[in-house]
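Quick one: structure for this chain?
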Amino acid sequence: MKPRIIQHLAAPALIASLFGLAAAPASASSHNAAEVAKWTVAEWHDTMQSMPEGDAEQGKKLHDQTFCASCHGDHGESLSGNWPRLAGQRAEYTYKQLIDYADGRRSEDNRSQLMIVVSEDLSEQDMADLAAFYEQQGLPETAKPAKSHPAHQLISVGDPARLITPCSACHGSNGSGGINESSTLRGQPEVYFIRTMKLFRDGYRDNDVAHGMSQFAKPLTDAEIAALADYYAAE
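Got it. Here's what it folds into:
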């Protein structure tokens, strides 16, 4: 990905207009257009290896200058269930998502348009700085749900009959984060979690390397997705 010169988005009117976009999946045409630039495992490995060292202090400045707090809160804590929690998120994951928005791999629903506008003007260093800032904020303290929780089986064991790997294998104990680009799930708002899982399951979001999430989400029922959302959001 070629470096980009940041043009700070001091344009509240633009952002305000994008807030009004519906959360519906993207049209078939825009979805198909995004399919032209998929990651291979080798390409993502090379990109991750060349990820710049992030500067959290500079990332905080970018967070403020690009109005990230409007959706994600002053420290990435998320202001509503519609937006993901970025505080404590793995830097590699945040960096990858920003690249994917900027390069057209993520355009799964109308909400994506806001992130596309923001990300396409960021350089790789900017992205790494933002990622470092959010990772530095730390995760919320949550109590691990009891084994009786309806999602516990999927989290800890998975479902071999449906070829579903345990969520903890990639996302860590209690959603605290895995390795490389695997995301941290702890504390994610339920509304956002459910929407994201359904987008993976229904084929609208497919920027995952080797289609891991797309494969594991496909067999899940609405009830199972809701249970997983409750598990990871549990205080």
